[in-house]
Write a structure and sequence with these properties.
Alkaline Phosphatase, subunit A, four-stranded antiparallel beta sheet, single chain, alpha+beta, 13 helices, Methylamine Dehydrogenase, Chain H
Length: 745
């Protein structure tokens, strides 16, 4: 067997003995992605070289991979092509490659290494597959909800077939009669009659009928006798099992639990092999943000092979795993199905009925009234809990990891003391590329999940979240789409929008004029623009129910010469938050308002509980005062809370399943206004010393969030602020066992 590992850290190809279940060879590949295929005789392996725009050919000798040839799609490595899946016709010596950047099909001659033909496709492509008779090439059009049939005899696309949303993996039955198509955003598989070129049935792979997005169906395999189809649901962490012995009359047989985010399945004899893209949990990061230990050595318990992998940044914490599962008997499958349902917090009942408490300001049923009429949802950038709030008495914090404590963030510390301290909140996202989508949509598509590691690992690609690329957007859109569908007013200040230019159509005419979220503008200046806009809306009785605000200067610009120091950036952000809550608390709508403040992700730092743990702040008359809430919450919990308050249904399985923040709310309001605290830092303080950290910061691009390596960036922050290596930290999986309460995530 061969495995391609395409994470943010070290990328590699592995040869694995499926019988002994051990690694035979493990080689580093500079850039890689999904495409992988053996030659017919098994003596060669072809692999995608990702944004190097090539297909690599390896000879297999003595169970070792030896690079023997390269087929380039372009001689210009910087050209935006990025090969994805491919297929090979060894009889005609042709290599068929589809791409996800220039949306094309490339036909190459394996012997001459020449591109014989390039065909434009309708959208980003995921993979392709030759028909049994080699007359057609089936292409999954990832962003177009279609399968294209390229006629190899006439050299043209002569048919497209409408399938589900985000078609990705393709599987052809042994006899060539049936083509199975996994549709990630629809939790489904389309079954196509290849002769008639039509869909004969659609298989719902989700755990419940009519479930919203959230299963992320993305891989397929057939049993040896071709009667059983195994379907990987990446976000349900399971396989769906179907009896497909009579296409058109297929029957669900049950589910099999897997590891985290299964991305590929193969069946050999009586064994099912599943690759789990994110492994089993959020891996410990023992070296922490230590610039003297950029790599750590991990020893495989299976093979005993030492592997050096990049340390510290959250994107490098996920070590993929391969599971070997014995094909279960019917009684075993029934038991495994129960385990899957037990593992899954989502259910149909939860969509309209959330856990909570009758009479709480956060309703338990969608559509029930709430005394809160206005939600102010502030999103900041990239901080962990320990970095900011580990010094708060009563918090589960490690002060050795504290960077921006009460001296620099007095207002945020005042909020958690005056209102409620939440020390068990986790971002669903890993980085900003998926963080803003999670924070506003309770989901990251298979496209985002599978492409951000490439760009964050410095291997090409682009920042496609926040509405910049349609294929990356959630099927049902984001919280603003949810508002529009349910006649709830909304307005955005910098989220999914540039200056006077929304990234998505739903925000047209729903953004604050002249709002610039970039680091070039102080958050306190952004606050004053919001204040002016807010006061005007109040005066005209036009205040919207949902207000999404972006205060992101806690990201900082490192030690870049001439720019605000990290402490100045952090203090500016903190003061903006304090001024915001104070102004709102003295306004006519305070009695009907709530403020929710989160980080879009927690990538830029360390936390001793988990790399996803972050800060969350609540303020408003209906928020409890002077309390600590240790309940486990997530980004999706925040959205679920907003939805319940505003009478909105959930958007995905994630917000439907999430625990709302009801334990932090009270039905007895306290209308006491909040008073901001002055900053202890000169907000105009600039970096002036030419230090190693400053030299590194000068090379960073801060014009777009996360356009730099956060691993390096956080090392710069620690060295620049502390003047010494950071202490090591230990990150644990965020798994909470609660036998008494059934509503925890």
């Amino acid at each position: 067997m061969a495995v391609t590992n395409n994470g943010e850290g070290r990328q590699s190809l592995q040869l694995i003995d499926p019988e002994k279940f051990e690694v035979l060879d493990d080689i580093t590949i500079p850039k890689s992605w999904y495409g992988l295929k053996f030659s017919n005789n098994g003596k060669s392996l072809y692999a995608s070289a990702g944004n190097d725009n090539a297909i690599l050919q390896y000879q297999i000798k003595n169970d070792k991979l030896i690079l023997s040839d390269t087929c380039y799609l372009s001689n210009n490595k910087k050209e935006n092509i990025s090969p994805a899946g491919f297929d090979i016709d060894e009889k005609t010596n042709h290599l068929y490659v589809v791409t996800k950047e220039d949306n094309s099909l490339y036909i190459l001659n394996i012997h001459t290494k020449e591109v014989e033909k390039k065909v434009s496709l309708l959208s980003e492509a995921y993979t392709c597959l030759l028909s049994k008779d080699k007359h057609y090439l089936f292409i999954s059009l990832w962003g177009a909800k279609k399968i294209a049939l390229y006629n190899l005899l006439e050299n043209k696309i002569d048919t497209t077939i409408e399938v589900g949303d985000h078609p990705n993996d393709l599987l052809l039955s042994q006899n060539g009669k049936w083509l199975y198509v996994a549709n990630a955003n629809d939790n489904s598989v389309s079954v196509i009659d290849t002769k008639n070129k039509s869909i004969v049935e659609t298989l719902n792979a989700a755990l419940y009928p009519n479930a919203p997005s959230g299963s992320t169906t993305n891989a397929l395999a057939l049993s040896k006798n071709q009667k059983t189809l195994y379907i990987a649901n990446a976000d349900n962490n399971c396989l769906a099992v179907f009896d497909v012995s009579q296409p058109g009359k297929s029957v669900s047989k049950g589910f099999i639990p897997t590891g985290w985010y299964p991305t590929s399945i193969k069946v050999i004899g009586e064994n099912i092999y599943v690759s789990n893209g994110k492994g089993f949990n959020s891996m410990p990061n023992r070296n922490g943000p230590n610039p003297l230990a950029r790599k750590q050595t991990v020893t495989s318990h299976k093979s005993g092979v030492d592997k050096s992998i990049p340390a510290r940044h959250i994107g490098t914490l996920f070590t993929g795993t391969l599971s070997k599962i014995k094909v279960p008997s019917s009684p075993q499958l029934a038991l495994l199905s129960k385990i899957v349902y037990s593992n899954t917090p989502y259910s149909k009942e939860k969509e309209m009925n959330a856990p909570g408490q009758e009479g709480n300001p956060v309703p338990v049923k969608v559509g029930n009234p709430s005394p809160i009429k206005y939600v102010f949802y502030i999103i900041k950038e990239n901080r962990t809990f320990d970095q900011v709030l580990s010094d708060v008495p009563g918090a589960e914090g490690d002060t050795s990891l504290l960077l921006f404590g009460e001296q620099y963030t007095p207002n945020q510390h005042a909020l958690v003391k005056d209102f409620v301290l939440l020390d068990n909140f986790y971002c669903d996202a890993e980085v900003s590329a998926d963080g803003h989508d999670w924070s506003l949509g309770a989901y990251a598509t298979d496209y985002l999940e599978k492409t951000w590691p490439t760009s964050y690992g410095g291997r090409g690609g682009s920042y496609d979240g926040e509405g910049f690329r349609p294929i990356a957007n959630n099927k049902g859109g984001f919280i603003w789409d949810n508002c529009k569908r349910n006649n709830v007013s909304y307005r955005s200040y910098g989220e999914f929008a540039g200056v006077n230019k929304p990234n998505i159509d739903i925000l047209k005419d729903h953004i604050c004029p002249n709002y610039d979220w970039s680091l070039n503008v102080k958050d306190t200046s952004k606050f004053r623009l919001w204040q002016k806009d807010f006061d005007s809306l109040i005066a005209h009785h036009a205040l919207t129910a949902l207000n999404t605000i972006r205060f992101g200067n806690d990201h900082t610009e490192g030690m870049q010469i001439g720019r605000p120091t990290p402490y100045a950036h952090i203090a500016d952000n903190d003061l903006a938050v304090g001024l915001f809550v104070e102004h709102l608390s003295k306004s006519p709508v305070w009695n009907e308002s709530v403020v929710i403040i989160v980080e879009d992700d927690a990538q830029n730092g360390s936390d001793h509980i988990d790399a996803h743990r972050s800060t969350m702040y609540l303020a408003g008359p209906y928020i409890k005062r002077g309390t600590i809430d240790h309940t486990m919450y997530s980004s999706s919990s925040v959205l679920r809370t907003i939805e319940l308050i505003l009478g909105l249904p959930p958007m995905t399985q994630y917000d439907a399943a999430a625990t709302p923040l009801w334990r932090s709310f009270t039905s007895t309001p306290d209308f006491t206004p909040f008073h901001h605290l002055p900053s202890n830092v000169n907000l105009d303080e600039k970096n002036i010393k030419i230090t190693p950290a400053a030299i590194q910061s000068a090379a960073f691009n801060f014009s777009k969030e996360d356009d730099i390596s956060d691993r390096l960036f956080n090392e710069v922050l620690w060295q620049g602020l502390k003047g010494k290596p950071a202490p090591p930290s230990v990150h644990a999986a965020f798994i909470i066992a609660d036998n008494k309460k059934k509503d925890n995530d």
